Amino acid sequence: MGIYKKIGFVCLFLLVALVVFAQDADTSAASTPDVRKINVNEAVRLALQNNLSLQSSHVALDKKKRPADLAWNQFLPNVSLQGSLAAANKATKTTSFDPTNGRPVEIEGPVWSMNGALSIQWQGLNVAMAEGIKQLKLNYESGLITYEKAKIQLERDVRKLYRSMLLADENLRVREQSFQLAEEQVRTSQANYSAGLSPELTLMQARLNRDKLIPEIDQTRNNRKVTMANFAMLLGLPYDTMFELVSHGAEDYNIPGDTADLIRNAAGNKVDLQELRSSIKTMRAARNAIRYQLWTPSLNMGWSLAPTFTGGDPFKDEWKSDSWTDRGNFSLQLVWSLNGLLPFTTQSANLRDMEDDLRAADINLALAIRSTEVEVYNQVFLIQQAKESIEAQQKTVALAQKTYNDTLTAFRAGLQDFIQVQNVEQQLREARLGVLQQQYNLFSLVTDLEYSLNVPFGSLSGKE
What we know:
This protein is of the alpha+beta class. The protein has helices at 3-31, 40-50, 52-69, 128-194, 200-211, 213-234, 259-269, 271-295, 346-412, 418-453, and strands at residues 35-38, 78-87, 93-97, 104-108, 112-125, 242-245, 298-305, 307-309, 324-326, 329-335.
């Protein structure tokens, strides 16, 4: 083989290898999803923009807006226009007498006939129509509140889920740190065993303590993946989107000290209570509309025109003004059904049912207000308890860390057995995880309190 053929063969081989490597790199890049860095405010914006449930709520709002915008159209009359052109199967013949000679004359009637009709009707004009318009407006206002409630709830859920993912990250970090400590304990036990300072059982216990952390770490990672998929769905993103979260940092919650003021604000401003009050207003307008419809008369008004061609055959004879008959008329009709005035009729029973529904709605509103008051009272109390618990557990973490360091130093010197090291390390891990869980509980309580007060999220923590 010549030198040039060898060089060409090597170049071809390198080219093929380069192509295969590039394809493998592209495949690897394609199989690895991009990591999207996102903060909580960006997450809220995406959710409000893309969430399908919220879009469905917006469609329902548009459905209520249309009748409210067109409420005036119930005053429009029913207008109908029709015309008819008919042909007889056989021409009609009539006998008449010629006045000039007194002889009978046979006259053949027209085969074709033509007529038309124009009708304009106003039916059921009643004072209840004003309440009907009011009901449509209130129904749309109720829809606005319901849509706003859906937005606020979505933001609350996004913020909570975002914080739970941060908690999962911290949880994973703590467990990985525990694994690193366990690795160090294995190395120490191995060194002591090799030096004849500790039995093989201590080394086996150290390895077992390390290995049992592996499934816990894997489970924590898997749980985070599931939470991340739910978070992506909430934001309207692909389920396999990977997120890099931005930590909030330390938060100093500023909860006003007057619980009574917080309870009053929640009773007046909580969006759930606003929705109930709006619903009651709509029900009351519907009740009033039924009352007026049953207890007051209705007016029917109409105007019609029915021209008929009487000049003979509309195709042969000339259309003259005197060839048409006009049967137009204008009518007024006052209708008052007396059934609604009788207490034992179906209409009166239905009206009493509406009254009972209104009373039940008022009771439910009062119950919801009482429930909100108790809810806010408990939230404020639990927030204070959580803050105190976090302070106490942070001291416990510091003490557990110092105890672990001292115990590990004694173990390295052969003054402590491995079981004691394992117990202290377990206490340290539990203390760290306890602080993280209490921090999440505190955040959830504050977020729920902000929802109850209907204030912007972050108002009580200074992190809007």
